[in-house]
Specification:
Number of helices: 14
CATH class of the largest domain: Alpha Beta
Radius of gyration: 22 Å
Strand order of the largest sheet: 4-13-12-11-10-5-9-7
Mean pLDDT: 93
CATH topology of the largest domain: Aspartate Aminotransferase, domain 2
Largest sheet: 8 strands, mixed
Number of strands: 17
Bound molecules: pyridoxal-5'-phosphate
Low-confidence stretches: 1-5, 162-169
Helix content: 25-40%
CATH architecture of the largest domain: 3-Layer(aba) Sandwich
Number of domains: 2
Strand content: 15-25%
Length: 435
């Protein structure tokens, strides 16, 4: 089936997927990998190098998934590789402190004016889960405000979708989440000042924190107004609630200090993930000394991890963030990305296609409904049939995107202008074939 869809040989991937279906739910270890929303079955990746990946059938692709964001230096970066290998020569895990944890913390805290202490964990989900517990423990309040379309990992209380209307009390959108957990989550529309004001009027002293992806990038790219984010800061301060920026994607992506610096807003809590681990599993939550003081063993909020601060993972993070901290790194990322995006957008405009790529920093998202700026989840056109055609057209032309139209693409430092020029041509050709 996959072969006819894309016109490339996917027979080995298809066989491997048939096997995997016997082992894993849906054949995968994370749902979006299953290619459910695009035709065919997933490509099994054999290796990656720089901007490229190769599947088990030997097809080569320019990769814009980049492991869903972590690989800001591309695949198999020599600095990251060498640091991992030399660290591993001394053993892989001790369950005791190592100097590498200090080094990664210094690299981050010495540059970031928004946080004073950090705790390393092993995933973005774990970071958010732990930080929510901290917010509740610190404030002594239970309710959490989140926004429709923001993803915060598979934490029980965050797997809640909004109905329409103001300050809807959450009902669970995943089976297995007790109604009583979900009822502590208030879901509001993004970029809607009246909704958040009304919510604080109603729940004034019950709200532990307001959690947001300051650059929502898990459900399209829903760029918020600066004034909306400023309002969140003001309302949280007024009501003694904590402002929680989930920067698992935006952290070290739109700038070294993430969206906090991009918008010039100091949140009370920040979570990181993805880029921070250099391609290995690392997450982190961070805040002021005072707020972090409530975490065990200093304080009463318990949180622990057998592999937290794992030396090999810390090493990968150190190597990657060292490269990111070099002067001009983010300017360069952004200028290559915008040249790439502009080329495709101007082609689409000339041809009159209802298509535009939305971008910030080195993140981009393909919007097929022609709206200039979508800021809320309910404004996304749910018809992904055109994304599907583009996705498959690009596979045929040697370009790999994450297999979902709701997901964003990532440009890495290994995506040279030359590579991006080639990829842009593939985008234009693919669009021409069906638009
Ligand atoms: C990816 C992501 C998470 C979850 O991180 P995992 O490492 O997949 O658990 C949480 N929040 C945001 C904003 C994310 O993009």
């Amino acid at each position: 089936m996959g072969e006819t869809v894309t016109g490339i040989n996917r027979s080995t991937s298809n066989k491997l997927f048939e096997k995997a279906k016997n082992y894993f739910p849906g054949g995968v270890n994370s749902p979006v990998r299953a290619f459910k929303s695009v035709d065919g079955s997933p490509l099994f990746i054999q290796k990656g190098d720089g901007p490229h990946i190769w599947d088990e059938d030997g097809n080569q692709f320019i990769d814009f998934c980049c492991s869903w964001g972590p690989l800001i230096l591309g695949h198999n970066n020599p600095d990251v590789y060498n640091k991992i290998v030399t660290t591993l020569q001394n053993g892989s895990s001790f369950g005791a402190p190592t100097v590498l944890e200090n080094e990664l913390a210094e690299l981050i805290l010495n540059r970031n004016p928004y946080i004073e202490k950090i705790r390393f964990v092993s995933s973005g989900t774990e970071a958010v889960m732990s930080a929510l517990r901290m917010a509740r423990g610190y404030t002594g309040r239970n309710k959490v405000v989140k926004f429709e379309g923001c993803y915060h990992g598979h934490v029980d209380s965050m797997l809640v979708k909004a109905g329409s209307g103001l300050a809807t009390l959450g009902t669970s959108s995943s089976a297995g989440v007790p109604e009583s957990y979900a009822s502590e989550t208030i879901v509001l529309p993004l970029n809607d000042p009246e909704a958040i004001k009304a919510c604080f009027e109603k729940h004034q002293d019950e709200i532990a924190c307001v959690i947001i992806e300051p650059i929502p990038a898990n459900n399209g790219l829903l760029l918020q107004d600066q004034s909306f984010l400023n309002l969140l800061r003001e309302l949280c301060t007024e009501n003694k609630s904590l402002l929680f920026f989930d920067e698992v994607i935006s952290g070290f992506r739109v700038g070294f200090n993430g969206a906090a610096e991009y918008f010039g807003i100091k949140p009370d809590i920040i979570t990181y993930g993805k880029i921070i681990g250099g391609g290995l599993p690392v997450g982190a939550y961070a805040a002021s000394k005072e707020i972090m003081g409530c975490i065990a063993p200093d304080g009463p909020v318990y949180q622990a991890g057998t592999l937290s601060g794992n030396p090999v993972a810390m090493a990968a993070g150190i190597a990657q963030l060292t490269a990111c901290s070099k002067p001009g790194f983010y300017e360069d990322q952004e200028s290559r990305t915008s040249a790439f995006v502009n080329k495709i957008n101007s082609h689409a405009k000339t041809k009159g296609y209802d298509f535009e790529i939305v971008t910030v920093g080195s993140i981009f998202w393909l919007s097929f409904d022609g709206k200039k700026r979508i800021q809320r989840a309910d404004q996304i056109d749910g018809d992904m049939s055109k994304f599907n055609l583009l996705f498959n057209g690009l596979l045929q032309r040697g370009v790999y995107l994450g297999p979902s139209g709701y997901e964003v693409g990532f440009v890495s430092a290994a995506h040279t202008s030359e590579i991006l020029e080639k990829a842009a041509d593939a985008f234009c050709e693919s669009l021409d074939s069906f638009m």
